[in-house]
UniProtKB/TrEMBL annotation:
Keyword set includes Signal: yes
Name of the protein described by the UniProt record: glucan endo-1,3-beta-D-glucosidase
GO molecular function: glucan endo-1,3-beta-D-glucosidase activity
Organism lineage: Eukaryota, Viridiplantae, Streptophyta, Embryophyta, Tracheophyta
The family this protein is said to belong to: Belongs to the glycosyl hydrolase 17 family.
Enzyme Commission no: 3.2.1.39
Membrane topology per record: Lipid-anchor; GPI-anchor
Recorded name of the encoding gene: Vigan.11G110900
Signal peptide: 1-18
Domain X8 residues, every copy: 358-443
GO BP annotations listed: carbohydrate metabolic process; defense response
Keyword Lipoprotein set for record: yes
Location relative to the cell: Cell membrane
Keywords annotated in UniProt: Cell membrane, Disulfide bond, Glycoprotein, Glycosidase, GPI-anchor, Hydrolase, Lipoprotein, Membrane, Plant defense, Signal
């Protein structure tokens, strides 16, 4: 079941010059795509102040008028050849898609194509011409100071990206990259870069730890170190951004800022994408947002903001390819959130998880015997009320060890006020922001749903040991056949 998300992206907050911001991409390959008015209503409700469109849809631009929302409009790849070959065509594009809408619609940039060098290489020879023609039209309209022109690149144009200090752009594209970077530098624009740690992590020969891709804290001995600069990297995102900085410096460009035009993590995948999960998507995007908004920059450029657009606002169910292609969104088309961003530590302004709802659940690959032991302990020595699991009660179905264990260990976790170490149980449990409640089975910790936390007095199970014990006398679930030997072994492990 979908869990509500509170995605207040700095409502009524306009970052000061130089401060990083978070925006969202708005794709439209959606069954029953909301109307432009409905899209803008969602943006305003969530306080989203920066968006990127993949085109320059007139209805969408009109709906965005007088909202103050900053908008990147795009030249789709199929229009690039025409614009790159004709100054007049570029001028007409700017007149229709920019001049007709400003200043009521706050257009701040034009993204020319998308990943042209890697997805549309036959258009590469006219890419820089297209940027220059569009820039000339903006200059003629006296809009060149408020609207920048650039083109989003895939991070895979960077070769040898780790260590970052050795990174360089694919030399095949030097005839394009050098004049392109000259253009960006001379116009005060930025390098647009799509950064997807998910795809780096999924590379067949990759040895990237999941925690490193998800911004999870790493012990110092697990941090990646660039042996040439001795810079420490705690996440893939920073390493890729710095690789782009180093690749530009390799071509003697050292003062072009980077704008990350796409980054995110899919919430669902097929059997070949086991790490495309709601929890990982939540973890990545929540940590990304915190990381960007703290203005820490990167190891190479500390304090230099790297504003980022999350991919994406809606799940695009009409996209082709693997299951993950349809599941990058923060919201479903009906406006329901896919998951609750967990941002309580993002700062006083951007702290969206006001409910602070977290739950303890059984891991999908957990050993059944270990789950049984955790269930036994929670319903016994853990003093959890397991009566909702009795036959005929709301949480009896599904009648499985995993389902019953999830209820019991979450009840213990909530009972202990979600204290550190109370959701481990020898590694078979993990914390999630996805509410496991279903039907009439409301899990403890579900605010407003009979889920108030209860203060408990029993000791929390250690993070290094799983505690088990006899089943509560009030519990007699048909699926539970705990072994006395297993109970004794695990009980000894607690001592």
């Amino acid at each position: 079941m979908a869990v509500l998300i509170i995605f207040h992206l700095l409502a009524m907050f306009v970052p000061a010059l130089g401060d990083a911001f978070i925006g969202v991409n708005i794709g439209t390959a959606v069954t029953n795509m909301p109307s432009p008015t409905e899209v803008v209503a969602l943006l305003k409700t969530q306080g989203i102040q920066h968006v990127r469109l993949y085109d320059a849809d007139r209805a969408m631009l009109r709906a965005l008028a007088n909202t103050g929302i900053r908008v990147i409009v795009s030249v789709p790849n199929d229009q690039l050849l025409g614009i790159g070959q004709s100054n007049a065509t570029a001028a007409k594009w700017v007149e229709r898609n920019v001049i007709d809408h400003v200043p009521s619609t706050n257009i701040t940039a034009i993204a020319v194509g998308s990943e042209v060098l890697t997805s549309l290489p036959n258009a590469a020879p006219v890419l820089v011409s297209a940027l220059k023609f569009l820039q000339a039209a903006l200059v003629a309209a006296n809009l060149d100071q408020q609207i920048k022109v650039s083109t989003p690149h895939s991070s895979f144009i960077i070769l040898d990206s780790f260590p970052p200090s050795q990174a360089f752009f694919n030399k095949t594209w030097d005839p394009v990259m050098v004049p392109l970077l000259n253009f960006l530098q001379s116009t005060g624009s930025y390098l647009m870069l799509n950064v997807y740690p998910y795809y780096d992590f999924m590379q067949p020969n990759a040895v990237i730890p999941l925690d490193y891709a998800l911004f999870r804290p790493l012990p110092p001995n697990k941090e990646a170190i660039d042996s040439n600069t001795m810079l420490h990297y705690t996440n893939v995102f920073d390493a890729v951004v710095d690789a782009a900085y180093f690749a530009m410096s390799y071509l003697n460009f050292t003062n072009i800022p980077i704008l990350v035009t796409e980054s995110g993590w899919p919430s669902k995948g097929d059997s070949s994408e086991p790490d495309a999960t709601i929890d990982n998507a939540n973890t990545y995007n929540s940590n990304l947002i915190r990381h960007v908004l703290n203005n820490s920059g990167t190891p190479k450029k500390p304090g230099i903001s790297v504003s980022t657009y999350i991919y994406e606002l809606y799940n695009e169910d009409l996209r082709t390819g693997p299951v993950s292609e349809n599941n990058w969104g923060l919201f479903y088309a009906n406006g329901a959130p896919v998951y609750t961003l967990h941002l309580t530590n993002a700062g006083t302004v951007f702290a969206n998880d006001t409910t602070n709802q977290t739950f303890c659940v059984a891991k999908s690959n957990a050993d059944t015997k270990m789950l049984q032991a955790a269930l036994d302990w929670a319903c016994g020595p853990g003093k959890v009320d397991c009566s909702p699991l009795l036959h005929g009660q709301p949480c009896y179905d599904p009648n499985s060890v995993a389902a019953h264990a999830t209820y019991a260990i979450n009840a213990y976790y909530q009972q202990m006020a979600k204290s550190a170490g109370t959701c481990d149980f020898k590694g078979v449990a993990s914390v999630t922001t996805t509410n496991p409640s279903h039907g009439s089975c409301i899990f403890p910790g579900s605010h407003g749903k009979n889920g108030s936390s209860i203060n408990g007095t029993s000791l929390a199970p250690s993070t290094n040991s799983t505690n088990s014990g006899c089943l509560s006398q009030n519990y007699n679930g048909g699926s539970l056949t705990s072994s006395l030997i297993l109970t004794l072994i695990l009980s000894v492990a607690v001592l």
